[in-house]
Amino acid sequence: MRIANLNDRAVLLDGDRALDVERASDGRFPADPQRVYDDWEAFRAWAERADLSAAEPFDPAELGPPVPTPRQIFAIGLNYRDHAEEASLPHPEHLVVFTKFQSSLAGPHAQVPVPGDTVDYETELVIVLGRGGRDIDEADAWDHVAGLSVGQDISERTIQRRGPAAQFSLGKSYPNFAPFGPAVVSVDELADKNALTIRAELDGNGTGGPMTLQEGNTRDMIFSVPQTIAQLSEVVTLLPGDIIFTGTPAGVGMSKNLFLRPGHVLTSEIEGIGRLVNSFV
């Protein structure tokens, strides 16, 4: 099952075709992509049996963020060993958590305005919750996951590091600094939900052709998907439709003094889930 947001309407994707949820369910489920998580178990049961034969071709450029108005957005820092090492920081013993504000969410083909000279990229697996809760047991955590998506945690590093205390959430929340999608993919679609190849490449603005920026695997996360959900829920009440950016592997721009400029095109991809293609203006 692949749930997406096409022109602000919930759809199920089937290759290059999309099935409108409200129409196909005869109004049982609303058009608002966020609302499918309000009654997740019923929606999942319907979607798994939905007849996709009425799906129609669509323009991928018209896809928006698959979860457009989550009540909570979490982001995890330093969650890959090689990224912590490139930042010359110790591997964390506890989750490093910040947020990206909702107004930074964007679709998988969004243009991203560049507000400064130190705009950086971080390719990330995104968790979308179908069920919330408190004190979720790690062994049960996957049962709370609606699906996974691809995300970019874009940062303006100067603002992020502006003192006297770091401004992580502010520096990471400019317009379109959280593109994600193209869909929320249920884990039964994935060969191994715990080990997904994750990569990014950059083109345009003098790169001389596509150049690989990041290449890693989600199995190398310090805190796995179940550990992340369990530890967050020790403190926070998680809600259906919440999203969690889970951190990035090594290769970020700050480590190599390579920052995003107008004219760059950034492609971010996770095995079995899909890709983002974002241009910078």
TrEMBL record:
Protein name listed in UniProt: Fumarylacetoacetate hydrolase family protein
Every Fumarylacetoacetase-like C-terminal domain range: 73-280
SUPFAM superfamilies named among the record's database cross-references: FAH (SSF56529)
InterPro entries: FAH, Fumarylacetoacetase-like_C, Fumarylacetoacetase_C_sf
Lineage: superkingdom: Bacteria
A Gene Ontology molecular function term of the record: hydrolase activity
GO biological process, one term: small molecule metabolic process
Family: Belongs to the FAH family.
Keyword Metal-binding: yes
Organism: Georgenia yuyongxinii
Keywords: Hydrolase, Metal-binding
